[in-house]
Amino acid sequence: MGNFQLEDFAAGWIGGAASVIVGYPLDTVKTRLQAGVGYRNTFSCIRMVYKRESVFGFFKGMSFPLASIAVYNSVVFGVFSNTERFLSQHRCGEPEADPGRSLSDLLLASMVAGMVSVGLGGPVDLVKIRLQMQTQPFREANHGLKSRPVALGEQAAYHGPIDCIATIVRTEGLAGLYRGASAMLLRDTPGYCLYFIPYVFLSEWITPEACAGPSLYAVWLAGGIAGAISWGTATPMDVVKSRLQADGVYVNKYNGVLDCISQSYRQEGLRVFFRGLTVNAVRGFPTSAAMFLGYELSLKALRGDHTVTSP
């Protein structure tokens, strides 16, 4: 691939770390709403998590995502930026030329980034969700199943991310680390199209023509709006993914994407697929704003540029 640049990967790593720190508490709320039972709404979930587990409950399992999601975002942004650069140069036919940004290039690069993301992000998301969900009371986590009740104070299913990975591999094999991967693929392939494309066009639209690159305000606003759009529209498949990945903390309930959709619809109706929509959209703004700001600022520092360059 001509003009391959490693700076995109390094900047993506920094942006990913920033997004995790900013968005993790709301991500925990989102996961509990989607995969658990017993919460009336977002504020009810926040109150119950705080009452049962104090403020630390919102950061349950954060150490693993902080280390791994930074790497995951590094790959996503690096793959997207280098793929789009390759496509635009191939379209122009000259390696050093800058033919401008094309919607088709952005679309294809976003889809490639979405597909690649599942390979790395599947196990990361699985471990994160298992750690977030393991403090759920057994009857709530497995609503409608007849099995032994587990007291709220009982020992957690996993003793940390490493133990979680080891337990999954031991009980479900290596394939168990990719539980929910098909739902994640269906979420992320269109999701990244609705992430990168709105960001690129919004940041260019907000920036005055006289400026060489988007301002930090344009990056923050465009990144936040793009995140809200992407996460809002991805909510139905995100619900399915979260349920499939949370499944198995105590027992297995679903036999795949279609079975999860069927059971969820039969038991809770159509609105179950929009559970967490509000928190997804609200969380999407600050996390994506932090992601793109971290990416753009670190990319500028790494390249010694005085202007911000969109991914």
Quick overview:
By secondary structure, the protein is an all-alpha fold. It has a single domain, classed as Mitochondrial carrier fold (Alpha/alpha barrel). The protein is built from eleven helices and no strands.
Describe what you observe in this structure.
The protein has helices spanning about 5-35, 40-55, 65-90, 105-135, 140, 160-170, 180-205, 215-235, 235-245, 255-270, 275-305. The chain is an all-alpha fold and about 300 residues long. It has a single domain, classed as Mitochondrial carrier fold. Helix 1 (about 5-35) packs across helix 2 (about 40-55), helix 1 packs across helix 3 and helix 8 (about 215-235) packs antiparallel against helix 11 (about 275-305). It is a multi-pass membrane protein.
Features:
transmembrane helix; mainly alpha; mitochondrion inner membrane; Mitochondrial carrier fold; Solute carrier family 25 member 48; repeat; MCP_dom_sf; 311 residues
Topology:
Blueprint (H helix, E strand, L loop, with lengths): L6 H29 L6 H12 L9 H30 L10 H31 L4 H4 L19 H12 L8 H26 L9 H18 L1 H12 L10 H12 L8 H27 L8
Number of helices: 11
Assembly state (oligomeric): single chain
Strand-residue fraction?
A: under 5%
Encode the helix/strand succession as letters.
Answer: HHHHHHHHHHH
Per the CATH scheme, the topology name is: Mitochondrial carrier fold
Number of domains: 1
CATH superfamily: Mitochondrial carrier domain
The end-to-end distance, rounded to whole angstroms, is 17 Å
Q: Helix proportion of residues, in percent?
A: 55-70%
- The radius of gyration over CA amounts to 20 Å
The largest β sheet comes out as: none
| Structural classification | mainly alpha
Tell me what the CATH architecture is: Alpha/alpha barrel
Pick out the low-confidence regions.
138-153
The CATH class is identified as Mainly Alpha
